[in-house]
């Protein structure tokens, strides 16, 4: 499961990179994906919209059992 999640996140990574940000997969536990943000994503006012509206939606399209995505510091 983790490999599939990482593959999906890697496909989305260029969009974050184009705005000066990046992410790192931390873990998958209890149907929740944990990630860490870097660069411009850390202080971005729109990061929750990007994470919940973009990344989570893309993950759930491929893996419907994922319930949430959480940003860890």
Q: In the CATH hierarchy, what is the architecture at level 2?
A: 2-Layer Sandwich
Compute the CA-based radius of gyration. Answer: 11 Å
Proportion of residues in extended strands: 25-35%
The general outline is globular
Number of domain modules: 1
Count of helical segments? 3
Describe this structure in words.
By secondary structure, this protein is an alpha+beta fold. It has one domain (2-72): GMP Synthetase, Chain A, domain 3 (2-Layer Sandwich). The protein is 49% helix and 30% strand. The chain has three helices and three strands; from the N terminus they run αββααβ. The protein has helices at residues 2-17, 40-43, 47-62, and strands at 21-29, 32-39, 68-72. The protein has a three-stranded mixed beta sheet. A hairpin with a 2-residue loop joins strand 1 and strand 2. Helix 1 (2-17) packs antiparallel against helix 3.
Write a compact overview of the structure shown.
The protein is of the alpha+beta class. Helices cover 49% and strands 30% of the residues. It has a 3-stranded mixed beta sheet with strand order 1-2-3.
Question: What's the layout of helices and strands?
Answer:
Elements: H1 2-17, E1 21-29, E2 32-39, H2 40-43, H3 47-62, E3 68-72
């Amino acid at each position: 499961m983790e490999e599939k999640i990482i593959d999906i996140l890697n496909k989305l990574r260029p969009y974050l990179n184009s705005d000066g940000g990046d992410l790192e997969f931390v873990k998958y536990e209890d149907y929740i994906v944990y990630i860490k943000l870097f660069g411009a994503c850390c202080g971005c006012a729109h990061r929750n919209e990007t994470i919940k509206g973009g990344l989570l939606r893309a993950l759930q399209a491929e893996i419907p059992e994922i319930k949430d995505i959480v940003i860890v510091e």
